[in-house]
Specification:
The complex is a heterodimer. Chain A is mostly helical. Chain A has one domain (10-266). Helix content of chain A is 86%, strand content 0%. Chain A has nine helices and no strands. By secondary structure, chain B is an alpha/beta fold. Chain B has two domains: 1-63 and 147-156 and 181-239, 3-Layer(aba) Sandwich (Rossmann fold); 67-145, no CATH class. In chain B, strands 5-6-7-3-8-9 form a six-stranded mixed sheet. In chain B, strands 2-1-4 form a three-stranded antiparallel sheet, with helices on one face. The chains are: A mainly alpha, B alpha/beta. Chains A and B meet through helix 5 of A and strand 5 and helix 3 of B.
């Protein structure tokens, strides 16, 4: 009779894959923390290549804006269209602006902007750095005695920190205005009634927390994306894997951050 | 003295890639490291340049190290001028040493050394493989290194471009008096550039001598390498 071996079974390969992903997660977290500490050290020394910083800011802020505005705008319009009619019917039309504003400022704008920026900028950062890794460009930088973390990470992470709050402000304004237009078209709610209640939904604390979140999200997305690209191995397959990893871990990281912020500020 | 390697050992997992390797390269001398693919040639360069860490042994080097990579490794987001001047702009100890006009002069001079002019504003993707290689030579020598490492400098080039690159390797040796290591398996590169040849197999040195001694095929290893035979003491890894 054949002896049963666990090795080679489907369960074995599932556990093996899970273990592989767990090891990869732990190693990504470890590397992200290590590189993050080095980036912060360089930022505190104001050691940043200005030319690269300007290029990266344009990429982070300007290139990502159309997709960010589309996503934030459309998701707010959908919410406003769905709630405005019902609220007007129930005699709560004066609270539509308040509801949309609180939703946009507290959660929607930052999370949707984060997702848009991860998809567009995070993936491109990761694939760019990963391509530099697999084509030995990072090795060349190292041999030329230039610190690759300082040259590659610092301007990209700083552009994330600087541009994410600006993107958030523009996206939030766009979302709130779009919500007003949608509410007017869907329920006939007057613009005056909508924008009067917008002011009631704007809290200084919410705006400060949203801006703080934007800084942290911008830092995290750029850092995780650069780290995944920097640790790429192999050729084209390695670049693809690094990009996927960067997108997945950035998504996970910003949702965890969002939870942490909610617990700290709103629990 | 340029480079001295003593009892160098490097393993990746259970696989020992470099096994107790020792050699010396003096200033103004070119050592060709040869061997079949996977014999550890490029690993030696990465160990000397500090890209990977050794397990044990000693690597003694004097002065700056520059490396010319197999596929040039030019930074593709930078143009030729920015690539060559990269170390002068970005390296901490050189950042403020030169003015922009001095850097322009240095870049022009180094480009001239490798026979190129007027391509400063072109990007790597706009250059041929041979030109990219020559730009990477110019980038490597911009900091006046005392050690130059070449990783398969003529791989993938046509015979005329290979000859041109080989001439530049010899010319750079004469101009800079640097200690150089050329990793190659092309006989033309060995005979045209090298003063000494070191053959690696299984991470160990199996031949050390002059290019003439290599061509005389007096040992089973040199005989197999020069005749490119599958029969002999060196076994290729089965695919």
């Amino acid at each position: 009779m054949d002896t049963f071996t666990f090795k080679g079974t489907v369960t074995y390969s599932v556990y093996r894959q899970l273990l592989k992903h767990f090891v990869s997660l732990v190693s990504t977290i470890g590397d992200t923390v290590t590189y993050g500490a080095e980036v912060i050290k360089h930022l505190l020394k104001c050691s940043v290549d200005r030319k690269v910083l300007i290029e990266q800011c344009a990429r982070f802020g300007v290139s990502s804006l159309p997709i960010t505005l589309s996503i934030v705008g459309m998701s707010t319009v959908i919410v406003a269209m769905q709630v405005a009619g019902e609220m007007v019917k129930q005699g709560a039309g004066n609270f539509v602006g308040l509801l949309v504003t609180m939703l946009v400022v507290r959660e929607e704008a930052i999370i949707m902007s984060g997702f848009a920026i991860i998809s567009m900028i995070g993936s491109s950062l990761a694939s760019e750095v990963a391509t530099m890794r697999v084509t030995e460009q990072i090795d060349a930088i190292t041999v030329l005695k230039v610190n690759p973390i300082e040259y590659l990470f610092v301007p990209r992470v700083l552009s994330g920190i600087l541009m994410m709050p600006l993107v958030l402000i523009v996206a939030s304004l766009f979302g709130i205005i779009g919500g007003g237009v949608a509410a007017h078209l869907a329920s006939g709610l007057s613009y005056k009634a909508y924008f009067d209640s917008v002011w009631n939904g704007l809290y200084m604390k919410d705006m400060n927390v949203a801006l703080l979140k934007a800084v942290v999200f911008g830092f995290t997305i750029a850092l995780v994306s650069c780290t995944c690209g920097y640790n790429a191995t192999g050729g084209a397959k390695g670049v693809g894997e690094a990009t996927t990893k960067a997108v997945v871990w950035s998504f996970v990281a910003i949702v965890i951050w969002d939870l942490v912020f909610s617990i700290i500020f709103f629990f | 003295m340029g480079i001295e390697v003593k009892n160098l050992i490097k393993s990746f997992g259970k696989n020992t890639v470099i096994d107790d390797l020792s050699f010396k390269v003096n200033n103004g001398e070119i050592l060709a490291i040869v061997g079949f693919s996977g014999s550890g040639k490029s690993t030696v360069l990465k160990l000397i340049s500090g890209l990977i860490q050794k397990d044990s042994g000693e690597i003694i080097t004097t002065g700056d190290i520059a490396m010319v990579f197999q596929y040039s490794a030019l930074i593709d987001s930078l143009n030729v001028y920015e690539n060559i001047s990269f170390a002068l702009h970005e390296r901490k100890d050189l950042r403020k040493k030169y003015t922009e006009s001095e850097i322009k002069k240095i870049v022009r001079e180094k480009l001239g050394l490798v026979g190129l002019t007027g391509i400063e504003l072109k990007y790597p993707s706009e250059l041929s493989g041979g030109m990219q290689k020559r730009v990477s030579f110019a980038r490597a020598i911009v900091t006046e290194p005392q050690i130059i490492l070449y990783d398969e400098p003529t791989a993938g080039l046509d015979p005329m471009s290979s000859t041109l690159i080989e001439d530049y390797i010899v010319r750079l040796k004469q101009e800079t008096n640097a200690a150089s290591i050329v990793v190659t398996h092309q006989m033309s590169t060995i005979s045209r550039t090298a003063d000494k040849v070191l053959m690696l197999y299984g991470g160990k040195c199996v031949f050390y001598g002059t290019p003439d001694e290599l061509c005389r095929q007096e040992t089973p290893y040199t005989k197999q390498f020069v005749s490119a035979s599958l029969e002999g003491p060196m076994k290729m890894l089965k695919g």
